[in-house]
Amino acid sequence: MHLLFHALAWLPLLALQGLGVFAGWLLWVTHSGRRKVALRNLEHCMPELSDAERTRIARTSIVNELTTYIETARIWLGPGRSVKNAVREWRGISALDRAFAKGKGVILLTLHQGAFEAVAIPMSANYPFYGLYKPQKGAINALSLIGRCRFGGQMVKAEAGVRKAALPLLAKDYGVYYMPDHDPPEGRGIYVPFMGVLAHTPTLIARLVKESGSPVVFMFGERLPWARGYIAHYFDAPEAIYDADVAISTEAMNQGLEMCVRACPDQYWWGYKRFRRRPAGEPSFYK
After folding, report:
1. Residue 161 has what pLDDT?
2. What is the 3-state secondary structure (H, E, C) of the chain?
3. pTM greater than 0.90
C-alpha cells in the first residue's frame, strides 16, 4: 500500500483525474448500485430538473467521487508546493477570518463534495485546525495522518466520542473540522429536511454549538476541469444554527450543507444512501 500511494503521489494531476474519469465511466456503464442510488436521490432532491439533467449530474458525481479517491495519494504525499498551488482561489475566506476573530474556536463543516481534502489540507498551513478521526486498520491510517498533518494541521483521536474530543480544542480557540453529512447511529440523530427530504441527521453539531458558543463556517472544495486545480468555498452558517433548540439548529445545519450542494451539485456524492434510515412507518427509500 505504501509503495502504491507513493507511486500515485508523483503522477501528474491530469493523469490521476483521467483515471478517475475512466473508473467513473466503468461504474456507470455497468449499471452499478451507486448509479441507481444517485439517480434515486436526485429524483427526490432536485425534481425541478429534467431527467436528462439529473442523469448528467449523477454520472458526473460518480466520476468526481472516484477521482477524489484516486487523487488522495497526491494530496497526502505529492510535492508540497504543487499541492498548495493547486488551490487557485480561496473564495469567501473572510468568513473564516471573522469566525476566528471571535476567540471561541471555529467549527468548520464540510461534506462529501468535490475535493474536500485538496483544499482543507493546504488551509491548515494558515489556520490552527484539528481533524477528528477514529483510527483505521492497516497502512491507510498511518498514511492519512502523514498527509493530513503535512502542512501543520493536527489530528486527534475521537475514540471516546467527537464531542469530548472537540470541546477542549474549541475552548483553546482551535478550529475543529468535521463532516456531518451522514446517517448517524440510532439515538444520535433526528429527522430534519435535507434537499427537501427528511434525513436522519446527527445532532452533534447543535450540541457542540450550544456548549461551546463557537461560530460555524461551511466549506467545500470545487474541482476545476482539466486538472486546473481547485477553488475553496467558504460560507457563513445560517443564523438559526445558533438556536438553543436542537431541532432548529440541526435543520439549519442541513440548510448550510444544502447551500454547498446547490452551489456545485454535480460534485456532490449522490451515490451515498443518505436517506437509508426512515421515520417509523415509512417504506424503504431505495427499493
Report:
1. 81
2. CHHHHHHHHCCCHHHHHHHHHHHHHHHHHCCCHHHHHHHHHHHHHCCCCCHHHHHHHHHHHHHHHHHHHHHHHHHHHCCHHHHHHCEEEEECCHHHHHHHHCCCCEEEECCCEECHHHHHHHHCCCCCEEEEECCCCCHHHHHHHHHHCCCCCEEEECCCCHHHHHHHHHHCCCEEEECCCCCCCCCCEEEEEECCEEEEEECHHHHHHHHHCCCEEEEEEEECHHHCCEEEEEEECCHHHHCCCHHHHHHHHHHHHHHHHHHCHHHECCCCCCCCCCCCCCCCCCC
3. yes
